[in-house]
Amino acid sequence: MTLDPLDGQRATVTTTSASTTVADLVASVLADLGVGHAFGVVGSGNFAVTNALRARGVPFVAARHEGGAASMADGYARLSGRPSVLTVHQGCGLTNAMTGITEAAKSRTPVIVLAADTAAAAVGSNFRIDQDALVASVGAVAERVHGASSAFADVVRAYRTAVHGRRTVVLSLPLDVQVATAALPPSPVRVDAPRPVRPDTQAVLELVALMEAAHRPIFVAGRGGRGAGREIAALAAASGALLATSAVANGLFAGQEFDLGISGGFSSPLTVELITGADLVVGWGCALNMWTMRHGSLVATGTKVVQVDDDLAAIGAHRRVDLGVVGDCASTAVDALDALDPLSGTGRRGYRTREVAARLAEHRWWNDTPTPDLTGPDATGTQRIDPRVLTARLDRILPTERVVAIDSGNFMGYPSTYLRVPDELGFCFTQAFQSIGLGLASGIGAALAQPGRLTVVGTGDGGFLMGISELETAVRLGLPLLVVVYDDAAYGAEVHHFGGSADELAPVTFPDVDLATVARGYGAHGVTVRALADLEPVRQWALDPQGVMVVDAKIADDGGAWWLAEAFRGH
Length: 571
Ligand SMILES: Cc1ncc(C[n+]2csc(CCOP(=O)(O)OP(=O)(O)O)c2C)c(N)n1
Ligand SMILES: [Mg+2]
Description:
The protein is α/β, with parallel strands linked by helices. The chain has a six-stranded parallel sheet, sandwiched between helices. The protein has a six-stranded parallel sheet with strand order 11-10-9-12-13-14, with helices on both faces. It has a six-stranded parallel sheet with strand order 16-15-17-18-20-19, with helices on both faces. Mean pLDDT is 93; it is low at 1-14. Bound molecules: thiamine diphosphate and magnesium ion.
């Protein structure tokens, strides 16, 4: 292996059968621990470690921008349940990845970032930055491989923090350390997962007492409730509670008779009415933040609020709660079900009345009646299609076995509400940093995590053009991917938020771009949609999706998304 002369000494690596290089050791330990896909952009500093991962059977996707690679790693880990790896070049490779790393860190996605770093002695290197300080500033965990003797422990520590501590960890690999000779690690490497946090018995009894006293309980599950859907739903059935999720946990209770879908800005009118009517709200691994609770307006005065979370710091972090239960969601639901009074349990209907069942059966979602709810008149004109009408039709022509990945912007309510998802592994919602431009790449990661499904990326024209370099990656991988661009030739969120004169809006409005032609240039299928009839090629393609299809939907102005004004209240 040779190194960039500015970054450390040139070195030739020789290993004996009982030894290897540190770069190789890092890769072999991570491969042994069972990391899923790796993503990255390869330069001299991460060339060896990336190829060592590949040599050990960890599939690697070469992205076109480190930001894209970071979002792919994020999307993959969210929807596969396995930790992912991101590998980047020292300095500029890491800075390019920072927005995606920040989103992952704020979402507590277990991504292990292998970031090459300049040798400590290379003080004049162009690539030199304080990587640890940069990483810590966005809430990711800065770790490093300190030397050959500590390398094994350093990698295991990073893995445990990422996977068991649910953090995004950046493991810096100084170039001189990477090429040092290290003893072969033990194989196979085993790291036991910690046991789930069992809740305190008294706290469970208090939760059960509140449930038994409630007439109209609602359970809202968040990210921490994912994986515990069965246990939470069983308790809900026994206690007469309705079920809902935060946006990130969308799909967790899909198919349940008393599922209300997303709680918050994307809620249907019936969901809002039923949540507001609750007398007990129990959050399961859910922050109950301003988005999920619509700035608290979904919780009526006098309604009791309980939060169950295995992280003490999460309890009460966003709102006042009457009871906090520190415990793993599945364990807490099981313990509460055991403690529920069997007599009160048998005949207990709670909020699951015949009337509620009938109303849900008749019209639960925005899009479960022949004509979808539009919250206003159809804005379709001769040249532009109403985004709600477009999305409602897509929901009908696309296979139900799907993954929906959402970029950020005014448009995002349309795919989040009108496109139904089959389960908790069908939705990739990267909004913890509210950055635009992450949707396409996180959708690629999601597609790799769920290869049997069609992935649908919903994005604005602004976010799409910001992240477009990964269209080449998607085409190269041959993924079955539909990219729906809600094209208003504007940063619509800003237009609707600020309003103002044409001159004031000049920085946020743009000339029309023929994105279908652009997409074809990348090797994707491209279709321009101005009316429902233009969706025919998409319907045909969706019968047996091959490769990437980009829909450039020239959308009409529906006056700004209904949830956006709500969202801006929080800023
Ligand atoms: C990286 C980043 N830069 C700027 C913003 C501010 N911002 C929020 S929404 C938005 C416009 C997005 O435009 P587009 O993707 O076309 O979606 P639209 O709002 O038009 O539906 C911008 C610039 C942001 N959230 N993230
Ligand atoms: Mg736009």
